[in-house]
Specification:
37% of the residues lie in helices and 12% in strands. The chain has 377 residues and is α/β, with parallel strands linked by helices. The protein has a five-stranded parallel β-sheet with strand order 6-5-7-10-11, sandwiched between helices. It has a two-stranded antiparallel ribbon with strand order 1-2. The protein has a two-stranded antiparallel sheet with strand order 3-4. A hairpin with a 3-residue loop joins strand 1 and strand 2 (65-67). Helix 4 (149-158) runs parallel beside helix 7 (268-281).
């Protein structure tokens, strides 16, 4: 009497197993297809940070604001790069360096995200390439997180100057370094130093107290576990990324040359900072490098004669220990010699240097400072 019921139950169980197997097969197929498309750049895959601290850059330094936590590791992924950053014991994204050195030449390097190597593997970024080619230590104190000239000066004065060195390299990005000195550009809860005053009467000030700054809470164990799942499953990652607006390309927009939009009056805060930095450097050599964005390579006309480069060269003319190097002509010559479009020097989804851009910048530093006899590895 129970046979029909038993047979029906077996059939239903078998059907459920078949449906489950089909769903697993569909999921596995979709996962494999997503992985293939992601590797071809047709689907955005972005690894999410799974460390307890949710970010690599934070307003953690009471003197110059944004910096890295010491001995930190952070995976940074976007649609066009997947890089792991590591900081040393004093918070620089660099190898561990001794404060004392008897080397005949040693360089402190200051700058923003371009210098830090945003989106670049450590061994492929500009300073590492220069160090590998010359055998001279280049201590990288660059950082992302809206880091401008005022912070570079204060970082040098309070931290980097404590390391034995013979040279200082300072990298200026006209596209945003002047904006980075304006408090109106940033949220009120960002802890950042600015200048106020004019001419020779500038002073450093902070809009808020260090204890009132914005602090991002550590990630919970549940959120870390969820992000591990997103990182391991490409299909879930793609679904999540479909709702993330920040995955859209952030290439440098077209527009006028950023070199030319600086007047002598507008450059006063920058020159005040550089004068103080040069004084702090004492008899050490200071080289100021000017970084072009994509729009500058496309639109700057005779940058040596007008705008910020001319202002900086005039500043250096009366200071024997200071030199100015514009990187724009080096990129332009490389593009012409190799038949390349300028966008080859920048990441496909971001305005920072690509591996080629870091390499050309390194070649420019080596050529302008150390001579042509050095060879990149």
């Amino acid at each position: 009497m129970n046979t029909p019921v038993t047979s029906r139950n077996r059939f239903q169980r078998h059907r459920k197993k078949v449906i489950a197997a089909m769903l697993v097969a569909v999921f596995v197929g979709a996962e494999l297809a997503t992985r293939v498309l992601a590797r071809q750049g047709l689907v955005a895959y972005r690894p999410f940070p799974t460390t307890r601290e949710p970010q690599f850059w934070a307003d953690v330094n009471e003197t110059f604001g944004v910096w890295h936590l010491p001995d930190a590791e952070f995976r940074h992924g976007t649609a066009c790069f997947d890089v792991t950053y590591r900081s040393n014991s004093y918070g620089a994204r660099d190898a561990e360096r001794s404060r004392r050195s008897e080397a005949p030449r040693r360089v402190v390097v200051l700058g923003d995200s371009f210098v830090e190597g945003f989106g670049a593997d450590t061994e492929a970024r500009m300073t590492n390439l220069v160090e590998a080619a010359t055998g001279i230590e280049h201590l990288n104190f660059g950082t992302s997180g809206n880091f401008g000239p005022v912070q570079e000066w204060l970082l040098y004065d309070s931290l980097a100057s404590g390391f034995d060195h013979t040279d200082v390299f300072v990298f200026l990005l006209p596209a945003n370094d002047f904006a980075d000195m304006k408090p109106a550009r940033f949220p009120a809860d960002r802890y950042r130093p600015y200048l106020r005053g004019s001419g020779d009467t500038f002073e450093v000030w902070y809009p808020i107290a260090f204890g009132d700054r914005r602090v991002q809470e550590p990630q919970s164990p549940l959120r870390i576990a969820r992000r591990h799942l997103y990182n391991s499953c490409y299909l879930l990652n793609a679904v999540r990324n479909a709702f993330e607006p920040d995955l859209k390309p952030t290439l440098d927009p077209s527009g006028p040359c950023t070199y030319a939009g600086v007047s002598s009056k507008g450059a006063e805060p920058l020159l005040f900072v550089y004068e103080r930095l040069v004084r702090r450097a004492g008899d050490r050599r200071v080289t100021i490098f000017v970084i072009p964005r994509l729009r500058d390579l496309e639109s700057c006309d005779e940058p040596e004669q007008t705008g910020i480069v001319a202002i900086l060269k005039d500043f250096a003319a009366s200071r024997p220990s200071v030199a100015v190097v514009d990187l724009l002509p080096h990129f332009a010559r490389h593009a012409e010699a190799n038949g390349l479009d300028y966008d080859a020097y920048f990441l496909s989804c971001d305005g920072h240097w690509s591996p080629l851009g870091n390499r050309v910048a390194a070649e420019a530093v080596i050529e302008s400072v150390y001579g042509r006899s050095w060879a990149l590895p």
